[in-house]
Fold this protein.
Amino acid sequence: QVQLQESGGGSVQPGGSLRLSCAGSGFTFGSLPMGWFREAPGNEREGVAAIDGDGSTIYSDSVKGRFTISQDNAKNTLYLQMNSLKPEDTAMYYCAAARIRHGFAGFRYWGQGTQVTVSS
């Protein structure tokens, strides 16, 4: 049974940084494509970044150059380093895993989410 648990959210001022973590269990870490999504009030959930087992990554245009996705297979942990945060990055952030992904589609396992708030 795939289980995902996010941590690391919080409140930060514009321009600040946060690192989200996602601990995974129930599968061989690194064998499944994984990703980060976010959902702001009134908006649909959107893909932020994704990573495959071979380390290849994709990013949404809105975070490219500011966010970095990575994973540590030995620690069964997925990360999202977020720099130069903006108020529009405020959202609930979710970790997800897929069997097969096509862009940001195909993700079927989800964590509970961690809140990120960017405000002065």
